[in-house]
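Ticket #123: bound-state structure for zinc ion.
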Amino acid sequence: MTGEELVARARAVAANAYAPYSNYFVGAAVVARDGRVFEGVNVENAAYPLGICAEKAAISCAVTDGCKPGDLEAIGITASPCGGCRQWLWEFRIDRVTFPNSAGEIVTYTPAELLPEAWELPE
Ligand SMILES: [Zn+2]
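RESOLUTION: The complex was predicted; output attached.
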């Protein structure tokens, strides 16, 4: 599945976001190496910091279905991932991250490009 196809899936599911406070609807679709696709949307809360991003929701669905770091091949998002989500993308060793940039162009990066020198829990 291409990055563009994943962004299209993300755009389709974004309408389901629960975003009554920001009215900023975000979708994400992540494909596992075995072909399974997991979608997520942002889910806000009246206590603002408790909301979760679409990428985290999609990755959480994948984990619920048994996926581990390294099992996820690529993700498409309807917006540039926030800093916290970049740490999640790094943790799950996703190969490719595709989203529309601020100019509206579809771009693809690795998590390392999005978050250089990422933090890891010392062993
Ligand atoms: Zn985020």
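RESOLUTION NOTES: Residues 21 and 44 are 7 Å apart (CA to CA).
TICKET STATUS: resolved
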